Each structure stands twice: as structure tokens, then as C-alpha cells.
Amino acid sequence: MPDELNDNSDQEAPIPATEGQFPELKHGVKSSTMDTSPIDPGNIEVLQILDEHGQLDKSLDPPLDDELLVKIHRGLVLTRAFDHRMLTMQRQGEMGTFAPNLGQEACQLGQVIPLSRKDWYSPSYRSFGAQIWRGWSMERLLLLWAGYHEGFPPPAGVNDLPFSIVVGSHVLPAVGVAMGMNYKSDASCMVVNFGDGALSQGAVAEALNIAAVNAAPVVFVCENNGWAISTPLNKQAASENLAVRGLGFGMPSIRVDGNDILAMTVAVDEAAQRARAGGGPTFIEAVTYRMSLHTTADDPTVYREEELVDPWEERCPIRRYETYMKYKGLLTGELIQKIHAECEQEVIEARDLFRSTAASHPREIFDHLYEQLPPELEAQRDAYLRRLDERGGPDG
Amino acid sequence: MAELTMVEALNLALDQCMDRDADVCLMGEDIGINGGVFRVTKGLYEKYGARRVMDSTLAECGIIGTAVGMAIYGLKPVAEIQFSGFTMQAFDQVEQNMARMRNRTQGRYPIRMVMRTPYGGGIRAVEHHSESREAYWAHTPGLKVVIPSGPRNARALLAASIEDPDPVVFYEPKAVYRAFREEVPETHETMPLGKAQVVRPGNDLSIISYGAMMRVCREAVDDLVELHGIDVELIDLLSISPMDTQTLSESVSRTGRCVIVHEGHQTCGIASEIIARLNEHAFEYLCAPIRRVTCPDIPFPYFQTEKQFLPDADTVIGAVQETLAWE
Amino acid sequence: MNRTMSTDFKLPDLGEGVHEGQVIKLHVRAGETIREDEPLMEVETDKAAVEIPSPCTGRVERVHVEEKQLVHVGDVMFTFDTGGSEGKSATSEPAVTIAAAPSTPVSVPAPSTSTRRKAASPAVRRLARSLNLSLDDISGSGTGGRITRSDVESHAGTATAPQGGGSSAAPTGIPATSITPVAAAPHSPLAVEGIEDTDEYGAIVRQPLSQARKTISRVMSTAWQTIPHVTDCNDADITELDCMRREFNDPDNPGRRLTILAFVVRAVCRSLQAIPILNASLDEDSGEVIYRRYVNIGIGVETERGLVAPVIRNADTMSVGDIADALEIITTNARSASFGVNDTRGGTYTISNAGAMGPTRYSTPIIQPGQVGCLALGRARKMPWVVEDQVVPRLILPLSHSMDHRLVDGGREIPFIGHLIEDLESPMRFMV
Q1: B24 and B131 together in one domain
Q2: Measured between CB atoms, which of B284, B286, B327 is closest to C146?
Q3: What does each C-alpha distance from A31 to A24, A26, A28, A300 come to in angstroms?
């Protein structure tokens, strides 16, 4: 599948699109297009800069410098290569259960491209592309998903929160961090990412409300990929779209084509600037599609027809961006192939490094529970360590 | 030394901690302008302002979740949940994040916060305003659970909890909030967490209790000592987790007999943990089975039958006498 | 350079509790070559249909499975010839999911009354243990027949002593005299039978001496007056012996219990064999020392008639287990005082387990006429002791050994006691 999507060597010139025609988004129905007409109540703006054919709305083309644009492309390609490698490793028995993010690369990266090191990021469990951009090594992410506790701490200097396996439980702490920024008059912001399913959680509603009431510097990115395991969007929400929810809590809200890296970057950047300047939270509904499984233990063919997925092949975020980059004269077909191969190589090297170093130390599992272990736990740990010693085996 | 009620003592602790450390902040429903429904935070909003004393939306889960975030950021939040019965709505945030964030991030994000809440019955309150569920928190790895019994130890323990590097669930026995006054020193005072206090030394039998039940036990002990000539040792647990196993086992090893008194339900209540530990550390010295005096395993009744539901001095005396008579 | 390297590829753990699946499609046949990550096969589990990519590059030597076959995690699917090339060996151990066995509830049958343990609180059991008493020997006066502290203490022959109270002073004279003081207030009626009378000071009760008492009185007097007694007081560290004793389990005699006394008897026999003068007799009339080749150990026991010393004949030929059995019989008979005259004759040496009756430590045991030595055991207790320059709690058994100084000098007695103590302190030595 990846090869087909990336084979755009015959597309040297952008294909002109018909005026005003955008893909419509209605999930659970055979064909999907993105509706750009204004919605009552309020006017939820819909932002798309780069359409699926790679056609650019020049008036909205963000002034990003060439170096960044190239880095973005690499980030997209690396994310997909890493995701694919993780899946392969899982099927080969080397990796635990995880949530692939095929098709959602632009949505993820767009959330973190506008952020500085001082800003904070609270990812979902599917956002490892964004985590790599933020400074997590691929090797650390492999350790994490393969069940080694050494993979879990965010790297030094990276102000990231851990993701939450309990869906939506990370959003409140993310808002709390942002409230901390207000407390300390810290002109930074927090971007927190969650899915369409998470938005149904009461805790997330509380988080939105608290952020709005307290003008917390948060950017809420609701990554609407159309599915919460087997629950399609129209069974998850009755509202016309998800962006109105943010509006309902009293914050500026926008709907963005999540597969358009430029739109994502621009929208998040604007929201981040608003937050840093004390303007409070923003709600961004980023529309994308979960091209793959919920997790590696899932079989979407049970509940989802392939025909629903097919149109989204056309909307691949990487393909349209490569068209854009060629249009900008920053990439050629040959260079693109080279970058793909280089990214694959980087991923292989990370895998090999992971293979040679992965080892969790069972002696450490009592560490980091309290600052200092209370006596009862010391006794339990001593008994545990004695058992370890008696049984021998790998000394963690 | 001034004589303060528990409410005044808690207020003193909060005030002094906020004064000493600019990162200490308060949040909760109605704690700001209103000073808290029990007035524990009275005057602090006026003194420290809205930035440091935050009135929250009506969202217990939200209060605790955002407090966790503030602690991740490096502040020291003291979050009030108006009644302990409402902490259940925050259970996911306590269990998932407050208790486990340090462990999940391998020490990168320790959580220095306090969740304080009034608990327990005896004030003729409406439903869900009288529960005693400290067992839930004691069973959660990563938390500390502290329960004072009087003004002085409430002040000292709250200050210690705020200064503690780990997350603390601080249960305030509301029946004691204004029940009596005690001398509380003006200067900042703390008590170590994880230590029980021998309130009255004795040799015939050990009574172990905490919270509002300490008053009930003191009444029973007076009776037992003066009228029945029984040399009772009375221990105030103070910290449910970590628990001072050493003091308890030293006492019961010496006296050989023990009665445990608490409000929480019988099954899987804190007494069962104490008995398990005494079984491990003092078994050989037991002269009689360890008795527990608790509330039965039914929901806290509507307040007309509250008195009969809660343990009282007579119940405790009866249990002590039966334990002594056991041969 | 054409090495072959065969590697097996086993079905990996596909996660979330899946442990088996059905082969849907095989993408390769034996003999074909394949590259790493190319699809190998499709397996259907109850969660999903999963495509498995090749773990290595090489030639498929063998395909071990067929389409439609049911396979389990860990089963070998393929064998590859990787020709020594780079590439991950396909034999990473998959984690085999083991289905948890359902826990079968274990119902514990209520013990039948005949085999039910004696009921007693932990503190009471501890007390009994420290007195070398078995709960089986004690009848309970508590609720439901429970053994109480006072049951244990009166069985041991002392008053209800306070817990952890100090030991009472060692009684002088005959350790076998058990004192059961009656808490008598002044002028309250004495619980003794006899003739009520008065003397010049007040009321008295006259009780005629029993025959047994007369005999004991005479024998004790003679012994004390004719035998120059020297008593050597000592201690033996029986911590290890006690451990051994507790852990002892005779598969041939599951009911057999060993007491410290049984070990002491055995050790004494060995010491008597080493220093035979202590097993001898002095005949002043004929001017002879009579050494005995046999060792008959008298055991001082308290009966309702008074002190008696039934004899274990040829104790030197008996194992500790046999000695224990013999002691058991003696104890049983002592209760019913059913010793015959011959039971008490022929002793060559006497041991008295005074410590069983109460907190006695050292005493001056009186030697049986015809013998030259008598050993009294005090009550074993935990004491601070120096072991390898550390002060540690150890179980210490007091020993009081009287010798007849007409025949036995310190030069014989001291090595005798030394030998005995060495045995008791290194019990493995004398188990042989």
C-alpha cells in the first residue's frame, strides 16, 4: 500500500481542481466529501490550503522557509516508515500491541511543528510521529511499545506528557499544566491531542470547560479519524461536526483538513500564538481518516467496508505534499525516492539499536513509586529481590 | 498558645504553607470568596488573591485532573473536594494520574499535591455526605493517606502533607471540625507522616483507631480505666498509608490483646489490613483474637438512624471486655 | 563460503491473549527464496486475520504447515536456509501465552474430633513450648476445652506467674519437690486432709506420713549425710539442639515426639562411656570401686507419692528415639504412679528434669545411694550469650551436677560435664 500512494513520479504538474469542489466528510456512508458551507450555530470556519490533488490555495500558503518545508517532508515520510516497521515487528513477534497511525501523519505533525521547546505537548497513544518530531528517539518509542519501562520517561528537555491508555484521561492534566503557565506568567502553550471517541468522555468535557473558564493557554486538537475502534463517527456524536463542541464551551473553534499539513500547521500556529498571548484556548477539529487498524489486535474488516477506506487513499497527506514540494521546486521524483530510502534506513538502524540494547531490569520495578519507599514496601521489595536472587536468571 | 478548633487549625496550616512557599496554591468549589462550605479556607482568598486561591467549576474529576497537571508543571496544589463522597467522580484521575504519574514517567514527573476532603458521619448530613472510604485510597499504590483526629495534629499533618514530595489524600473528620478546641502553637509545626501516636500507654489491651472515632475511644478508655481498672493502651493511627506497623506490633506484642475501631465498613476496611500485619508481626503473643468495631457493610443510612449505625463508647467497651475475657 | 545456516521460524505471539490460529494462505513453497519482510503466510485468529512478514532473507528449506491447519504460538512454521547471511535469526523465543488454569476451590474438611488439634491461643502455645510441654498432655479448662495459660502453668507446677515475670528463686534441696502453694489468706481453711487439732500457737492439721514419704525421707537423709556432695553448675547452649529437635520427623514413627531430656540422656550415656568413673559405685566395706559395663539411667519423676526414679535399662544401647519412647512410658506411668519396685532398681546414674516443673535454674541435686553422680536440668530459657564476639539470644539449659567426692574428683567430673556440654552444643556429633 505505501508504494502505491507514494508513486507520483508521473505527476509533475499539479492537476487543476474544479472551483469550489472539496471532498465531503460524512462517515458511515459510501462516499465522503468535506462540507465547507457555514454551519449554524456560529460560523465554524473550515480550513484547507492544500487539497488532495496537491492544488494550493495560494492566498493561504504559509510563509515557511525551505529548510522547514524539507524537514516537514522528511518528518512525514519517517513517520510512515516507522509506523510500517512497528507493524512488521509486531507481526514478527517483536513488538507489543500498539495503535498504527497510517494516514494521519500530517495531522500529527501539524500539531507540533509550530511549537518551541518551551511549549508542552500532550499526545494520544497514536501520535508517535509527533513525538519523534518533538525529540523522542525512535529507539525510545520502540522500547516503550515493546513493554520496557525504560521507554516511558519523556526525554530530557522535551516537555511532553505521557499518553493515556484510558482514553481521554490525559486532557485534564494537560489543562492543569496550562493553568500552571498562567500561574507563573509563562508565555508558553500546551497542545493536547485526542480523538473523536475521547470527546465523548465526561472528563474531556470538564477539561474544555475549565480551560475556557480559566483562559488556559491550551490548543485542543481533536483528531477526528472517523472511528473509535468499531464505532463510526455518526454513532459517536450527533452534532453536525465536532468543532461546535469547542464553540459550545466558549472558545474559538475551527475545522481543518487534517491531511493537509499546511492547514494544520497554520491553524495550530494561530491557536498557539493566541494561547501564548493570553487569549485562552482554541478548539481545532482535524478531519482525517484511520487508514489502518485501531490496534494490532483489531480486525476492521469485521465492521468496516473497504469501500469506505478507498476514497481516502486519494487524500493521502504525503502524496499531496510531495506534489506541493515539486511545485515549489524543492523536491524531484528522484530525490523523493532517495528520502524514502534514507528514512527506511534510519528506521532499520533504530530497530537494530533497540534489539541490541533492550533490557528491562526487574530489580527496578519498585523504584519511582514514592520519593522514598516506606518500610512496608521496603520489606516487600526485599522479599521480591530475594526471590529474584534465588531464581537466578537475567539480573535486571 | 491559642486554642483552636480543627477548622481554624487547618486554616492556619494552609495560610502558613502558602506564606512560606509561593508554589502552594488552592483549588476547589466555593473555597475562594466563600471561604469553603466549612470555612476551612476562610480569609485566604482575600490574603492571597484569585491567582492562588482558585474557585473551581463544578467538576470533581476536573479539579483533581487539573491539579495533577499543575503539579506536573512544578506547583504544589492543595485541591479540596467538598465532601469525600464526591471523590468517586475523581477516582480515575487519582488512580491513573495522581498516584501513578511518577511511576509512569520513571520519576520525571513527581506529583506533589494534596487532595483534602471532609469525611465521616455524625453531623446528620444528607446522602453521600458521611462516607468513610479511606480503604480505597490505602489500596492504591503511590498514594499516602493521612487522617488527623484533633486540631493540633490536623494542623501539623496537613502542613507535613503539603510539604511531602508525594501525593497525599488528606481525610478530615468533619464531625470533629468544631467539636472541641485544643492548644495549637503559632509557629509552623509538622508531624512525620507514617507514624502512629500512643495516646495513652497501657499494658492490658491495645485499642487502635483514628479520625473521629478517637473521641469515641477516649470516652471508652476513660470508662475502662476509671471504672473497670483496665490498663488500656490507646493508639491513634494518624497515617493509614504508610502505616506504622512497628508501633502497632510492639504494642500488641506487649499487651497480647487488641481492639480496632473505625467508621469505614467492615469488609476490607482498614482493620483487616491492621489485623493482617499483626498476624505477621505479633502472632505468637496474641492471647485472644483481634476484634474490630466498625460500621456494618450497608450504605450509610439516612441520618435519623445514624447514631445507632456508628460505633459508640459502649460498643467499644463491650468489645474490650469480651476480648479481655477470652481465655 | 557456501555455508548453510538453518533457522526455524515459530509462530510469534500476536498479542492480547491470542495463542492459536488457522493457516489461511501460504505465500511460499519449499525451495523458493524470500526476502526479509515479504509476506510469508496469513493466519486467522479469533481476533483478526493477520499477515506475517518474513523475518529473514534466504531460501525456504521446509514448510512445516499446511493451509487450513490449526497452529499454536511457538509451533515451527518454516525452516530457512539463510546461508550465514546477515538477518535476524528467526528463532526469537515467542512469549507463549499460557492459559490460566481455573482456580479450583479447595474445601478444607473439618478435622474429625479424634484428630483435632488442641485449641489454645498463640501466646499459650508459646508458653507451653518454652516449658518443654506438649499441649496434648494438658487438659483445657477454657471455653470449649481450650487450654488456658493457667492450665499450662498448673501443669508445669507453678502458680499463675505474670507474663514475662522474673524467675522465682531456685528451690533448695530436692529439685523434684514440686511446690504448689495455695494462696491462703491468714486463717483461711487449709486444703489438706488430716486430723484437726491445736497446738500452743493455734489450729493445726495432722497428716500421717505415707510409707513412700518415710522412705524418701530416710534415703535423702542418708544420702546427704554419707555422701560428700560437690555440685558443679554449668550451662549448655541448646539452640541448635532445639531446632533439630523441632524439625525432627521420623517417617517410621510419625507420632513420636522428641524432648530435650531424651537427647540429654543419650549425651549423658556417651559421657559416661567416656568417663566411666561417673557410672561406677563405691563399696567402702570391701574397699572397691565397682565399674559397670551397663548404663542404667534413672529418671527422677514426681508422682503423687513423691519423688521416684524409674530406670531406663541399658540406655547406652538405645537411640534417641528409643529413649524418647521410654521416657514417654515413664511419664505415663508417673501419672498413675504405677511403678513397681523393680522399675526403680539397678540405676547407675540419675537425671532429673527439674526445669519441666518450673523456672528453676541451678540446684544441688542429691545423689542416689549406690551412685556417684546426679544431674539436674534447670529450665531452658533464652539468654544473651556471646557467640563469635556478638551478643545474641540463645536457648540456654542450666545444668547442676552433683558428684560423690569420695570417688570422683574434679579432674574427672569436669571433663565429664565438658563432654556432655560439647555434645549438647554440637548435636550432630552424638547422633551418630
Answers
A1: yes
A2: B327
A3: 8, 7, 9, 18
Q: Cis link prior to A100 (omega < 30° from 0)?
A: no
Count the domains in chain B.
2
Q: Say if residue C165's pLDDT is above 60.
A: no
Domain shared by A374 and A233, yes or no: no
Is some CB atom of chain C closer than 8 A to the CB atom of A141? Answer: no
Closest CA to C263 of C281, C294, C239: C239
What is the residue type of A353?
L
Using the 8-state DSSP alphabet, how is residue B95 labeled?
I
* The three cell numbers locating residue A161: 506528557
Chain A CB within 8 Å of residue C32 CB: no
pLDDT tens string A198-233: 999 999 999 999 999 999 999 999 999 999 999 999
Residue C373 confidence (pLDDT)? 96
Give the active site residues of A.
290, 294, 303
Give A301's contacts in chain C (Cβ within 8 Å).
Answer: 49
pLDDT attached to residue A174:
98
Q: How do residues B82-92 score in pLDDT, each as one tens digit?
A: 999 999 999 99
Residue of A nearest to C93 (CA): A93
Does C251 score more than 80 pLDDT?
no
Q: Do B175 and B104 share a structural domain?
A: yes
Asked whether the beta carbons of residue B287 and residue C121 sit closer than 8 angstroms, the reply is yes
Provide the CB-side half-sphere exposure for C218 (13 A, CA). Answer: 7
Question: Does B69 contact A175 at a Cβ distance shorter than 8 Å?
Answer: yes
Residues 6+ apart with CB under 8 A from A1: A102
Q: DSSP for A68-117, please give it.
A: HHHHHHHHHHHHHHHHHHHHHHHHTTSS------TT-HHHHHHHHTT--S
**A354 contact residues in C (CB cutoff 8 A):** none
Quickly tell me which residue has 495522581 as its cell. Answer: B98
Chain A contact present for C94, CB below 8 A = yes
Chains that touch A (3 or more CB pairs under 8 A): B, C
Contact C48, A299 (CB under 8 A): yes
In a domain, B191, yes or no: no
- In Å, what is the CA distance from B143 to each residue of A132, B164, C295? 32, 11, 70
Which CATH number characterizes residue C245's domain?
3.30.559.10
Q: Is residue B285 part of a domain?
A: yes
- Asked if the Cβ–Cβ distance from A209 to B59 is below 8 Å, we say yes
Average pLDDT over residues C99-119: 51
- B283 vs C: CB within 8 A: yes
Same domain, C244 and C335: yes
Does residue A324 carry a pLDDT above 50? Answer: yes
* Spatial distance between the Cα atoms of B236 and C321, rounded to a whole number of angstroms: 52
Q: Which residue of B has its CA nearest to A162?
A: B105
Judge whether B61 is closer than 8 Å to chain C, CB to CB: no
Q: Measure the CA–CA gap between A315 and A329, rounded to whole angstroms.
A: 22
Query: Residue C153 is part of a domain; what is its CATH number?
Result: 4.10.320.10
Q: What length is written for chain A? A: 396
